[in-house]
Amino acid sequence: QVQLVESGGGLVQAGGSLRLSCAASGRTFSRYAMGWFRQAPGKEREFVAAISWRGDLSYYTDSVKGRFTISRDNAKNTVYLQMNSLKPEDTAVYYCAADRRAFYNGRDYADAAFGSWGQGTQVTVSS
Q1: Is the CB of residue 112 less than 8 Å from the CB of residue 98?
Q2: Strands 78-83, 68-73: pairing kind
Q3: In the structure, what pLDDT confidence band is assigned to residue 81 with cuts at 50, 70 and 90?
Q4: Residue 62 CB partners (closer than 8 Å, separation 6+)
Q5: Which one-letter DSSP state was computed for residue 89?
Q6: pLDDT at res. 27
Q7: Among 28, 33, 93, 123, which residue's CB has the most CB atoms within a 10 Å radius?
Q8: Which tens digits make up the pLDDT trace of 19-67?
Q9: DSSP assignments along 24-57, one per residue
Q10: Please, which residues bridge with residue 20 across strands?
Q11: Contact 127, 88 (CB under 8 A)
C-alpha cells in the first residue's frame, strides 16, 4: 500500500494559478502511474489528469486541457498538478491517486484503476 499526502490547495481568484503536490511513500513510486481527481460539492468525483509511470504520457479531461499540467519527479516520489487560468468551476476537493498496476502503459484511468488515495486538498476559485 502507498500513502499519499496532497498539499498546495487554497483560495485563488479566477484567472490565477495553483500548484498541487502529492508526496508518496510506502511503495516504489516510479513503477506506477499517478492521477488527480476532483469532487465538487454535490457532484460525483471526476478524473482530472493522469501520468504514466515513466512520466512520458499524460492524459487530461477535456475541461482542463491547455490549462492544467501533470508532472512527476520520481527522485522525490512526488506528482504535481500545475493549474493555470483557473475558473470558478474548478472549485473542488482535489485528490491524488496511485494506480494499482505496475508499469501500466494503457489509457484506462477509471477510478477503479487506482488503489490508493490521498486525503484531498481544497481548491476554491472565486469569481
Answers
A1: no
A2: antiparallel
A3: very high
A4: none
A5: G
A6: 82
A7: 33
A8: 999 999 988 899 999 999 999 999 999 999 999 999 999 999 999 999 9
A9: EESS-GGGEEEEEEEE-TTS--EEEEEE-TTSS-
A10: 81
A11: yes
